[in-house]
């Protein structure tokens, strides 16, 4: 098994491409070892000292490290853990735990049409580009012109995330949806 690695815009996060499907649909975010109990692979990766976050996409795994850890020391252990997991035949997600299908929060209210347009633009224009960097951005809410987005994987804590939100996503949404006045990140 050959596992490729790619750097991300976030220096604390590295993207691993195992050459096979990680999740059939959706994404899965594990911001702590406790959250990783739903996934044998995430639990195995959190077993590597210095790992602070795991994120799964369709064909990739991103790992976030602590500031004190060095990739030169972590990378071999992480590659070994990913290889061992896929060779073991264990599932990525335990039991009936399903990843988040769309990742977007539901929205009940008068702005349903606007929210639908926001989600459509996120799914078609933003999320594919962000997945290339090992992360995901999902809709969290819309209130009086402000779009609230949740950043996951390599996007969470990325030094360029504010620039991505303000100059990229906010400009895109404001261009296509005049009701949007601002985009803000949220922590979930």
- How do the strands of the widest beta sheet line up side by side? 1-2-5-4-3
Query: Over all CA atoms, what is the radius of gyration?
Result: 17 Å
> CATH homologous superfamily of the largest domain - what is it?
Scaffold protein Nfu/NifU, N-terminal domain
The fraction of residues in strands falls at 15-25%
**Helix-strand makeup class:** alpha+beta
The helix content, as a percent range, equals 25-40%
Average of pLDDT: 87
Shape: elongated
First-residue to last-residue Cα separation = 35 Å
**Largest sheet at a glance?**
5 strands, antiparallel
The total strand number stands at 8
Low-confidence stretches: none
Say what the CATH topology of the largest domain is.
Ribosomal Protein S8, Chain: A, domain 1
How would you describe what is shown here?
With 188 residues, this protein is α+β, with helices and mostly antiparallel strands. It has two domains: 4-88, Ribosomal Protein S8, Chain: A, domain 1 (2-Layer Sandwich); 111-185, Fe-S cluster assembly (FSCA) (GMP Synthetase, Chain A, domain 3, 2-Layer Sandwich). Helix content is 33%, strand content 24%. It is built from four helices and eight strands. It has helices spanning 40-46, 71-88, 112-132, 161-176, and strands at residues 4-7, 13-17, 28-30, 51-56, 61-65, 135-143, 146-153, 182-186. Strands 1-2-5-4-3 form a five-stranded antiparallel sheet, covered by helices on one side. A three-stranded mixed sheet has the order 6-7-8. Helix 1 (40-46) packs antiparallel against helix 2 (71-88).
């Amino acid at each position: 098994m050959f596992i490729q690695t790619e750097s991300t815009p976030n220096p604390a996060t590295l993207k691993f491409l195992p050459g096979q499907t990680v999740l059939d649909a959706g994404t899965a975010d594990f911001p702590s070892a406790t959250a990783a109990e739903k996934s044998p692979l995430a639990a195995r990766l959190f077993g590597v000292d210095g790992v602070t976050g795991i994120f799964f996409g369709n064909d990739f795994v991103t790992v976030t490290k602590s500031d004190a850890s060095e990739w030169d020391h972590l990378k071999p252990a992480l590659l070994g853990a990913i290889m061992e997991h896929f060779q073991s035949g264990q599932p990525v997600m335990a039991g009936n735990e399903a990843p988040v299908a769309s990742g977007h929060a539901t929205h009940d209210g008068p702005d349903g049409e606007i929210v639908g347009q926001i989600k459509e633009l996120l799914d078609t224009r933003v999320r594919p580009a962000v997945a290339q960097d090992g992360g995901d951005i999902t809709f969290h809410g819309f209130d009086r012109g402000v779009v609230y987005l949740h950043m996951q994987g390599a996007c969470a804590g990325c030094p360029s995330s504010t620039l991505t939100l303000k100059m990229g996503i906010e400009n895109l949404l404001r261009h296509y949806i005049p009701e949007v006045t601002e985009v803000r990140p949220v922590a979930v």
